[in-house]
C-alpha cells in the first residue's frame, strides 16, 4: 500500500445490521484496494470468525506473511469470540504486520463485549452499522442513498419509498438505485407510485392521517385495503407511531420555531400539517395514544401471533382517542 495516503489498517465495524456491516466492510476493502500502488498485486481478503474460532487459527492468519503480500483480514462475529481468540485479535491489532489491514465486525454485545473498548484503545477506525429502528432514521437512510447516487430527491418522495418498500435497508438501497436508473435521476412521489404501484396506492400514512384526525371508519377502510395490497405490517405500524409521535412533539412545544423542531427530527414541511392535527388531541388522550403505538410496535415486531388484528385494534384505538379530543 502506498505510504502517506494509505488508508487505516485497523477497522471496527460496530452494530447488528447485517446489510450495513457488509457495506462498511466492502467499503474498507474497496478503499484499500484502490490505494494499492500500480504494479502491485491487490491485497488478498481472508475471512474468519464465530464462536468456534481458535487463537491458533487467528495467530496463523495475522502473523507476518512469508512472502510479504498485502492482506485484508476480516474477523466476523467477533462478539462471540472466546477469551483466547479475543486476546489474539487484540494482540494483533496493537501491532499489525506490514501490508495487513484488519477489519473486525462486532455487534457491540456478546461475550466479547470488552473487545470493542480494546480495539478503540488500539486506534481502530470505527464504522457504524447499528440497526435503524426509528422511522426518521430509515427515511434519512433513503435520502443518503440518493445523495450517494448524486440525485436530489424531495423528502415526500423518500417517505413514499419507505411506505412502499418497507424498512429493510438492503431492499431500500436496491430500490433507490433502480429508481434512479429507471427515471434518469428524476425521482419524485409520482415516480415512486409509478414503479411501486399496488403498494403505495393506500399508504401507511393514509391510514395514520385518518386515524389521528378521528376518522375511525376511514382509517379502518384504508388499513384493510393497505393490508390487502401488500403494504408490510411493520410499515403500517411505523407510520401510525410516526404520526402520533409527531403530534406529541409539536403539541408539547407550541410556539417553538420550525427550525428547532426540525433539529428534533420533524422536517419543516410536516410542521404545518402536524400542527393542524394537534387540535384533535389533549395531553391525556395523546398519552394514551403513545402507549397504544408503543404496544403495537412490540406486537408487530415479534410479540403477536395475529399482527393484522393488532394493527386494526391500534388504529381503532388511536382514531377513537382523536375523536374524543
Automatic annotation (TrEMBL):
MF terms in GO: DNA binding; DNA-directed DNA polymerase activity
Residues of the signal peptide: none
SUPFAM superfamilies in UniProt: post-AAA+ oligomerization domain-like (SSF48019)
First-level EC class: transferase
E.C. code: 2.7.7.7
Gene Ontology biological-process annotations: DNA-templated DNA replication
GO cellular-component term (any): DNA polymerase III complex
Catalytic reactions on record: DNA(n) + a 2'-deoxyribonucleoside 5'-triphosphate = DNA(n+1) + diphosphate
Keywords associated with the record: DNA replication, DNA-directed DNA polymerase, Nucleotidyltransferase, Transferase
Domain of life: Bacteria
Family to which this protein belongs: Belongs to the DNA polymerase HolA subunit family.
Official protein name in the record: DNA-directed DNA polymerase
Organism: Dietzia maris
Organism taxonomic ancestry: Bacteria, Bacillati, Actinomycetota, Actinomycetes, Mycobacteriales
